[in-house]
Amino acid sequence: MALKTIQAPIPGTFYRAANPGDPPFKAENDPVAVGDTIGLIEVMKTFTPVVAEEAGTLKVFHVENEDAVMAGQPLYDLEG
Protein backbone atom coordinates (compact mmCIF):
# COMPACT_ATOMS: atom_id res chain seq x y z
CA MET A 1 0.00 0.00 0.00
CA ALA A 2 1.17 3.51 -0.77
CA LEU A 3 1.95 5.99 1.97
CA LYS A 4 1.07 9.63 1.21
CA THR A 5 2.06 12.62 3.32
CA ILE A 6 -0.74 15.18 3.65
CA GLN A 7 0.38 18.79 4.05
CA ALA A 8 -1.15 21.79 5.79
CA PRO A 9 -3.18 23.85 3.30
CA ILE A 10 -2.71 27.10 5.25
CA PRO A 11 -0.57 28.41 8.11
CA GLY A 12 -2.02 28.57 11.62
CA THR A 13 -2.50 26.46 14.74
CA PHE A 14 -3.44 22.78 14.24
CA TYR A 15 -6.07 21.24 16.52
CA ARG A 16 -6.87 17.52 16.59
CA ALA A 17 -10.23 18.05 18.37
CA ALA A 18 -13.06 20.57 18.06
CA ASN A 19 -12.83 21.67 21.71
CA PRO A 20 -10.47 21.06 24.64
CA GLY A 21 -11.46 17.79 26.32
CA ASP A 22 -13.25 16.45 23.23
CA PRO A 23 -11.94 13.25 21.65
CA PRO A 24 -9.74 13.83 18.59
CA PHE A 25 -11.35 13.74 15.16
CA LYS A 26 -8.95 10.93 14.19
CA ALA A 27 -6.20 8.96 15.92
CA GLU A 28 -3.28 7.03 14.48
CA ASN A 29 -4.38 3.79 12.76
CA ASP A 30 -7.97 5.03 12.38
CA PRO A 31 -9.71 4.47 9.05
CA VAL A 32 -10.27 7.63 7.02
CA ALA A 33 -13.02 8.15 4.45
CA VAL A 34 -13.20 10.89 1.84
CA GLY A 35 -14.71 13.93 3.55
CA ASP A 36 -13.70 12.99 7.10
CA THR A 37 -12.41 15.85 9.24
CA ILE A 38 -8.85 15.14 10.42
CA GLY A 39 -8.32 18.37 12.35
CA LEU A 40 -8.75 22.12 12.32
CA ILE A 41 -6.34 24.94 11.51
CA GLU A 42 -7.07 28.19 13.34
CA VAL A 43 -6.03 31.59 12.04
CA MET A 44 -7.23 34.67 13.94
CA LYS A 45 -10.18 32.83 15.52
CA THR A 46 -11.28 31.39 12.17
CA PHE A 47 -11.23 27.58 12.07
CA THR A 48 -10.66 25.81 8.76
CA PRO A 49 -11.29 22.05 8.71
CA VAL A 50 -8.60 19.74 7.33
CA VAL A 51 -10.75 17.32 5.32
CA ALA A 52 -9.58 14.02 3.85
CA GLU A 53 -9.52 14.02 0.06
CA GLU A 54 -8.64 10.31 -0.09
CA ALA A 55 -9.62 7.20 1.85
CA GLY A 56 -7.14 5.07 3.75
CA THR A 57 -5.64 4.60 7.20
CA LEU A 58 -4.11 7.46 9.17
CA LYS A 59 -0.66 6.11 10.05
CA VAL A 60 1.12 8.91 11.92
CA PHE A 61 0.72 12.60 12.78
CA HIS A 62 3.73 14.82 12.11
CA VAL A 63 2.43 17.58 14.39
CA GLU A 64 1.00 17.64 17.89
CA ASN A 65 -2.26 19.19 19.02
CA GLU A 66 -1.97 23.01 19.19
CA ASP A 67 1.28 23.09 17.17
CA ALA A 68 1.88 26.06 14.88
CA VAL A 69 2.03 24.92 11.26
CA MET A 70 3.10 26.53 8.02
CA ALA A 71 1.41 26.01 4.65
CA GLY A 72 2.97 22.94 3.02
CA GLN A 73 4.20 21.48 6.31
CA PRO A 74 3.52 17.72 6.69
CA LEU A 75 0.50 17.05 8.93
CA TYR A 76 -0.03 13.29 8.72
CA ASP A 77 0.63 10.18 6.67
CA LEU A 78 -2.22 8.33 5.00
CA GLU A 79 -1.87 4.75 3.82
CA GLY A 80 -4.28 3.86 1.06
Automatic annotation (TrEMBL):
Coiled coil: none
Single GO term (MF): acetyl-CoA carboxylase activity
Stretches assigned to the Lipoyl-binding domain: 3-79
GO cellular component term of the entry, any: acetyl-CoA carboxylase complex
Pathway the protein takes part in: Lipid metabolism; fatty acid biosynthesis
Source organism of the structure: Methylobacterium frigidaeris
Role summary: This protein is a component of the acetyl coenzyme A carboxylase complex; first, biotin carboxylase catalyzes the carboxylation of the carrier protein and then the transcarboxylase transfers the carboxyl group to form malonyl-CoA.
UniProt name for this protein: Biotin carboxyl carrier protein of acetyl-CoA carboxylase
Keywords attached to this entry: Biotin, Fatty acid biosynthesis, Fatty acid metabolism, Lipid biosynthesis, Lipid metabolism
One protein family per Pfam: Biotin_lipoyl
InterPro entries for the chain: AcCoA_biotinCC (IPR001249), Biotin_BS (IPR001882), Biotin_lipoyl (IPR000089), Single_hybrid_motif (IPR011053)
GO biological process, alphabetically ordered: fatty acid biosynthetic process
NCBIfam families named among the record's database cross-references: PRK07051.1 (NF005457)
